[in-house]
Amino acid sequence: MSHHINENHSEHDDLPIDEERKVEHEVSHEIAEPLEISEDDNKRVLRKIDCVVLPLASLVYFCQYLDKRGLSFAAIFGLQKDLGLKGQDYSWASSIFYFGTLASQLLSIKILHMFSVRAYVGATVVLWGGVMMAQAAPQNARDLLALRFLLGAYPAFVVLISFWYCKAEHPARFAALYGADIIAQGFGGLFLYGLSSIKASIAGWRIAMMVAGALSIVIGLAFTWLVPVDAKGAWFLSETDRQIAVDRVAREHQSAQSKEWKWDQCWDTLKDIRFYLTFIWAFCLCACTVLNFGTLILNGLGYSTFITTVLQLPACGMQLVCLGIAVAACRYFPNRRGVIQVLLAVIPFIGAILLQTLPYEGSKWNLAGALWLTTCNQGIVIVNLSIISSNIKGHTRKTLFSTFFYIGYATGSICGPQLFLATEKPLYRTAMRAIVGLYIVYMVTMASFTLLCKLENRRRDKLAAEGNEEAVAKPGTTLDNESDIRDLSFRYVL
């Protein structure tokens, strides 16, 4: 039988499943007997979720990347000349985007306790689209900076993925999202190239901004309309499958959405050193990105605008390979995610060393290859996000971790472009030296986080061996809002 429910009659037996669960959640965090979900049932429900939630979330990521990276393609199609950008103006146009991200993350802590993740993501994407279309209008650097700031709002996908998927499923789903980023980088670049090449009364890059923005608005509205608030209200699942969708995640001690702010979770999080390590991860990874300057580096090596656009494709191919390696490694070594990230970081680390040391004279293909290696950090990011979504429990605590990660993301992305000095183009040697150092810091902090989780798992195993029943590792029985700090039966993924 695919699943069994306790047959002992209770006062809630006549209630619908959703209402019964609501009563049970209010009374206790446990039910008499957990559901037994067969492998076939689990695969069927997962497949249905993947067919609705994941494609729409991936489209959002595609638009987010297209909107964010539209600037780098516009830069080689006349934007700098048309707006009179000089010196570090372009670097600031890249950086100020993330001041908007920083502001939106501070607001999201409150917003995600007032509205559903679906509403937040949908509104964010529609906002992106409107601002992206407005980017066709600026006449000078000041106008561009104002619009880039507004474009910085960022969706809460760490929280979204943890609500729908089990821990072992997180890396592959984050890979699907970032795969959409890579597709936007490659084929989206060709799309923007085609639009930017249009000869009309207005510049082609302005037409590209308007079309990309309109696409974002359509996808944002579709996401809000089609993605359910949670599994209990999933229109694409039967009543039984909704129950399975809720319980398969609950068994792994995942937390439910909640509008209640838990101060105990807040204080526990602020005292947790791992909270600050996630900030350092995100800062280092985003300060190391070369994507906003990739087109300028290639163009500066002497390649035409068309060849520069085409040369994004090998980089995309290498990123997809690294993404595949990350997913496969997490599947076959599910409790070695920290080690996997450190090994994946070696690839862009080597690329940055080569860009710093290879001579500018002679063959430019060596430098182009080094640049491609330096862009291969997407695999690191998806494992990174999966560690947060899998290891952090409690809605307030998970929201704080996710928000602080993206604050680090925004801060690193603000600082990173300032390392690319206009006087050092096209190879930006100072930036490459800094990137090498940042990857070393990243590897050290990742190893530290993994060690802390391993020591905590050992402490809980010892408590269980000494007879503490609360510390015995066991499946969860229902979605609750208890934190991983207080839930001693919870075990961290390493």
Automatic annotation (TrEMBL):
Localization of this protein: Membrane
Residue spans crossing the bilayer: 119-138, 144-165, 177-195, 207-227, 275-298, 310-332, 339-358, 370-388, 400-420, 432-453
InterPro entries per record: MFS, MFS_trans_sf
Record key words, sorted: Membrane, Transmembrane, Transmembrane helix, Transport
GO molecular function, one term: transmembrane transporter activity
Coiled coil: none
UniProt-listed Gene3D superfamilies: MFS general substrate transporter like domains (1.20.1250.20)
Membrane topology listed for this record: Multi-pass membrane protein
GO CC terms of this entry: membrane
Predominant place of localization: membrane
Name of the protein this chain belongs to: Major facilitator superfamily (MFS) profile domain-containing protein
